[in-house]
């Protein structure tokens, strides 16, 4: 039995969790800063790192009390993300690792999202194709075996979650945009407006989301249609692109399984369409583990630990960090 403490502080969620044997979540504490950043319409880096500093000890205490027992290793997000925020979690994790004399495992944030889909009784098997959709990333990743990644498609401009956040702001909906648009779209007609599906044709696995955001802006300038119709049509178009490219990637790689993860994986419309429109099974984390959390970092850390892929106290943080 191995217990890993996972720490995530790359952006605006402080996450501390204890995961047993790489897939059993014993406790998952998340302190969200959404309400703190909402008045600014986005994350303010300095405020984010201060807030991580203020709550990380308390969250860790809560997690340790709830999990009980001993900890075998500490895993923390080393990048990509906001430097000041990453430093809080990494240094806290390194200090605990030194004090307790247990291994320290730095984890890439996207790898964490991938391992969020391993949390549960039925973890997927490799090889697999991963679709990672969040506020900072939109990528298709071929994963032939654990910890080997080939990015086969990514966005040329905005990430899909970033596009949801920007369009929500255009529509006067609260931050974060994803859940607000999903809610507004419930009462709308997804075929009311025909928004563009950028780069839908052809053989490329690249994404582009800035044109979609601009198309929404122009639609609002004319005779503004009802917000639910704009939200539903935008959501349909944004997810159409993900489906088109994912189908193409499955064809190209011959993947027998898709793994969906990242904040946007919480979108009900996307989950339903991927589950019903693809010919391969889809592994996805429960809603609660889609947004940033410590459990996904602990799961990735446990997998690295099992393979002897540990770091040490010299590990640094990286605002941008390639996955492969
Ligand atoms: O993974 P995450 O928590 O942070 C990053 O690593 O970026 O993802 C946050 C993103 C935000 O852009 C948010 O608007 C989006 O995930 N998101 C959603 C939904 N819930 C969160 N997007 C669409 N539909 C949702 N239900
Ligand atoms: Zn994330």
Which descriptors would you attach to this protein?
324 residues; alpha/beta; Nucleotidyltransferase, domain 5; 2 domains; five-stranded mixed beta sheet; 10 strands; globular; binds 5'-O-[(R)-(carboxyoxy)(hydroxy)phosphoryl]adenosine; binds zinc ion
Briefly say what this structure is.
The protein has 324 residues and is α/β, with parallel strands linked by helices.
3D structure, described in words:
A hairpin with a 4-residue loop joins strand 1 (3-8) and strand 2. Helix 5 (160-170) packs parallel to helix 7. The protein has ten helices and ten strands. The model has no long low-confidence stretch (mean pLDDT 96). With 324 residues, the chain is an alpha/beta fold. The two termini are 29 Å apart. Bound molecules: 5'-O-[(R)-(carboxyoxy)(hydroxy)phosphoryl]adenosine and zinc ion (ZN). 5'-O-[(R)-(carboxyoxy)(hydroxy)phosphoryl]adenosine binds next to helix 5 and helix 6.
């Amino acid at each position: 039995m191995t217990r890993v403490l996972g720490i995530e502080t790359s952006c605006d969620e402080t996450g501390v969790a204890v995961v047993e044997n790489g897939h059993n979540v014993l406790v998952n504490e998340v302190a969200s800063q959404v309400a703190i950043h909402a008045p600014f319409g986005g994350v303010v880096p300095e405020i984010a790192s201060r807030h991580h500093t203020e709550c990380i000890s308390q969250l860790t205490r809560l997690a340790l009390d709830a999990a009980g027992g001993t900890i075998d290793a500490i895993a923390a997000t080393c990048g990509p993300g906001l430097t000041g925020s990453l430093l809080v979690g990494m240094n806290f994790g390194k200090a605990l690792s030194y004090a307790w004399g247990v291994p320290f495992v730095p984890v890439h944030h996207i790898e964490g999202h991938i391992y969020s889909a391993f949390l549960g009784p039925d973890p997927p098997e490799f090889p697999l194709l991963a679709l990672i959709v969040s506020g900072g990333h939109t990528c298709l990743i071929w994963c032939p075996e654990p910890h080997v990644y080939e990015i086969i498609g990514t966005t040329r401009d905005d990430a899909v979650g970033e596009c949801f956040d920007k369009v929500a702001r255009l529509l006067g909906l609260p931050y974060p945009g994803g859940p607000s648009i999903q809610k507004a779209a419930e009462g709308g007609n997804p075929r009311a407006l025909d928004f563009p599906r950028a780069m839908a044709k052809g053989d490329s696995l690249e994404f582009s989301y800035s044109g979609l955001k601009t198309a929404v802006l122009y639609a609002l300038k004319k005779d503004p249609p009802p917000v639910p119709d704009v939200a539903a049509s935008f959501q349909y178009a944004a997810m159409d692109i993900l489906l088109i490219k994912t189908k193409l990637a499955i064809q190209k790689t011959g993947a027998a399984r898709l793994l969906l993860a990242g904040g946007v994986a919480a979108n009900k419309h996307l989950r339903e369409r991927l589950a019903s429109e693809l010919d391969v099974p889809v592994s996805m984390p429960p809603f609660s583990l889609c947004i940033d959390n410590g459990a996904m970092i602990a799961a990735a850390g446990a997998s690295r630990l099992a393979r002897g892929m540990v770091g040490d106290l010299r590990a640094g943080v990286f605002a941008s960090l390639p996955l492969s």
